[in-house]
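User: Small ask, check this?
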Amino acid sequence: MAVEHVPASTDPARIAEILKRDAAVVVDRLVAPEIMDRVRDEMRPFTDANRLGPDDFTGRNTKRTGALVARSETGRKLVMDPTVLATARTVLAHATSIQLHLTQIIAIGPGEPAQAIHRDQWAFDFFPFPKGYEVQCNTIWAMTDFTEHNGATRVVPGSHLHDDKLQYKLEDSVPAEMEKGSVLIYTGAVYHGGGANQSDAIREGLNITYNVSWLRQEENQYLSVPAGVARELPEDLLRLIGYARGAYALGYIDDLRDPIEAVRPDLSKAGFGDLESAQSRQRGR
């Protein structure tokens, strides 16, 4: 079963429907290829200075370079992409709010073998979330063309409804091939992994993921984004990276203050969140 492709004009509600069924979908050419080049140029000083992965899972010939919000103005726009963000909020609508989970350029070098097939949600200490209850909505933006030959991300479509802690083989998966500027959207429960790069060039993808706000972020945005940079960010991005309550009461500072006060006191909203709405959502579940 191949990963379904949809055009950039597809409604986020339709993309979310496909994710509910398959847990993976490619949106073709969602942005112009030049946008990917701009992100690469803005991040180049950091990717050039970065080291290769320390183990087989992260890739010993692979670089993973994060802190996109702090380092790349163009990258911030991708984090806030309307189609992706609306899709993520639909997929994770069972939670009070969502947050930015991690950002990283994944540059797979020539000769890198395929990554072990896994679920991204295993990052939460391998907690066995109930089948059908998604806690992540993730993206891989193609900074170069993704082909099976150069290590396109491999996916087991529909596996988000399979048992946890399964061990899939590479041949159980299919490559999510796509053109530069396209994006693979997938959930935290789908089994997937980076493909083997059998080409002579680096395969670059931009991994931007979102999760429900009551879980910890994989990339610590408060430390990845210095306070001086955070103060200059627009409110919607600032709240997305974590300067907001994760539910009715999660994440307040000291005397029940809105966490955004730490960097932007002028944006503070008094009190806790909406308890009645949170309780209503719980009754619905």
The mean pLDDT is 95.
